[in-house]
Amino acid sequence: MPCVCAQCLQHSRTLGLTEGADSKAAIRKAYHEAAKAWHPDLFENDPAQQLEAEEKFKAVQVAYTELLEHFDNPAEPPMEPVAGDLFTRPARVDDEPRIDFHGAHGCYTEQDFPPQALDIIWSHVREPDRALAIVDLSRHGSPLGNLSQYILFTLHGIYVRDAHGILSLLWYGDLGELRFVDQRKQGKLPLWQRFIERISGTEQKYSLAIYRRDGTLFYAIASQADDGVKKVIYNFLQQKRPQEHP
Q1: Do residues 180 and 210 touch, judged by C-beta distance below 8 A?
Q2: Any idea what the Cα angle at residue 153 is, between residues 148 and 154, rounded to 5°?
Q3: What is the rounded distance in angstroms from the CA atom of residue 241 to the CA atom of residue 60?
Q4: Residues of the chain with CATH 2.30.29.30
Q5: Would strands 131-136 and 167-171 be described as parallel, antiparallel, or unpaired?
Q6: Number of helices followed by number of strands (H, E) in the chain
Q7: What is the CATH number of domain 107-240?
Q8: Is there a contact between 120 and 208 (Cβ–Cβ < 8 Å)?
Q9: Percentage of the chain lying above the pLDDT 70 cut
């Protein structure tokens, strides 16, 4: 339910919404448009404009976060009569698992998607699904990548674009076992993986294998990300796995 407090009305204006948004989809769409328009990376050749863009981008992020929070818990909800009750009740807050990479290179969450990630998300994700995080798998040991390969996490599933440009999708309802595999043989990594580890300065001892419920391998993350990122992904996906009932 939209909130109509003074703060949320201001946030609506920040995102280009004339009034309190009537759906979360409208808030997300306005956020994506505003974030793409004011992303600081677009103004890297104009320092003065980039400084202004940084401030507006921060305001856009704050507006987006607080509008969604107040949508679930309105400070001043609209008074809409419904049968059997005086006013509609605020919707319950979604209790969705969160994913946080703690600033790791090439890893982005909903509040800091770069423009290229937004383009990818818009081409794949449709309401009621929502993008939560994306990891650049094209870095090859470098802090910078181009998102030619990626793993995208949404509310409902996982999208992977591999080194061959093939896009695969796995819904969480079909998510099976998650397994860490030690890549070292007799205490040593293969030569090419040792080279990547040396130039990146990150330990890549394990690969994370993601399986479907039928036991087939969906995707394995090895040298594309360091072990800390794999652990974050593992913890998140463990919460999204279907619950087994006796």
Answers
A1: no
A2: 125
A3: 33
A4: 107-240
A5: unpaired
A6: 6, 8
A7: 2.30.29.30
A8: no
A9: 73
Query: Nearest to residue 120, comparing CAs of 104, 103, 138, 102?
Result: 138
Work out whether strand 167-171 and strand 175-182 pair parallel, antiparallel, or are unpaired.
unpaired
What local confidence, expressed as pLDDT, does residue 132 receive?
93
Q: What CA–CA distance (Å, rounded) separates 229 from 139?
A: 13
Average pLDDT, the chain: 78
* Rounded to 5°, angle at Cα 242 from 237 and 244: 125
| CATH 1.10.287.110 domain span(s) along the chain | 6-72
pLDDT tens digits for range 143-202: 556 889 999 999 999 999 998 999 999 999 999 999 988 766 555 545 545 555 554 555
Predicted local distance difference test score (pLDDT) of residue 86: 33
Instruction: Tell me how long the chain is.
Output: 246
- 178/191 Cα distance (integer angstroms): 26
3-state DSSP assignment of residue 177: strand
Contact yes or no for 183/205 (Cβ under 8 A): yes
Structure tokens at 106: 């090439």
Encode pLDDT of 29-48 as tens digits: 888 888 888 888 888 888 88
Which CATH architecture is the domain 6-72 placed in?
Answer: Orthogonal Bundle (1.10)
Task: Select from 73, 135, 74 the least CA-distant residue to 104.
Answer: 135
Which residue has 């896009």 as its token pair? 167
